[in-house]
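G., the chain you wanted modeled:
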Amino acid sequence: MPVGTQATVKTLTPDELYAMGAGIILSNTYHLHLRPGEDLIAQAGGLHGFMNWKRGLLTDSGGFQVFSLKGLRKIDDNGVHFSSHIDGSPHYLTPEIVMEIEQKLGADIAMCFDECSPYPCSYEEAEKAVQRTSLWAARCKESHSQADQALFGIIQGNVFADLRERSAREITELDFPGYAIGGLSVGEPKPQMYEMLDHTDTWLPVNKPRYLMGVGAPEDLVEGVKRGIDMFDCVLPTRLARHGTAFTHQGKLVVRNASCATEFSPVDADCDCYVCKNYSRAYIRHLIKASEMLAHRLLSYHNVYFLVKLMENMRNSIRQGEFTSFYEKFHQNYRF
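Predicted structure as tokens:
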């Protein structure tokens, strides 16, 4: 799911996202609550109408953003007091308030309000976050009433296997239509993230979607799918683009590097996106060095396309019973 934090996937239009095959995007409840506000978006007919997006939409709950505020927030069992990162104004979120906001935003999928524990943290901190996440999930389900909006539960537990199991058991008992795995890719080593995915996978129902939150590196998508994950989101493709870096089938390419100055080949010879068909590394590097906005647009288009196509190719390999060979070929070619 390409990320549209502020009701837009940075530098890309809906038509461009449709053309590359994006079926669902993610927007940010925390940011849209602060600006422009859920009431204004509701007046526009909800987020779909406000941003003119005609396909699937998922809104996160803002739990991760509140977690990221660190010294600007105070958490208790009822909710979170925090100060806006924009103007310092005071705000208060509870599971019930978050459900009200997400229902006004009107996305197709809403996420429960959760507490994401930091990495590293003590076992006691992680356990407290699991307790609150389960408590808040039950309250979210109780207060959520929008029949045409699916509500997903979130599993926490940091890097403690028994807490992951406990959280998965408690959240799945609430019988949500889908489940997210939160609190990973927050600083822990990748082998530890994969270990937690292996363990959590055991406790999730096989007939409901599984969503790994905040993960978007190509190698992590492939490893996640191998472990039964269906959905991902990450700001990485557009963030890397703004820093002059592109995904390729051989690994990341830093287009801003001097070595690309005289390379008239496409960003990725194995990619069939609009950018790779029409522009060279040398031209895009020139745009970067000249601080031209088109550089960000072209690299963002390519990076988002690359991930959308990677997921499409994995789906096709699964349908054809060839995922194992796809996985092996990916690792033969891709440099981390």
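The radius of gyration is 20 Å.

Shout if anything looks off.
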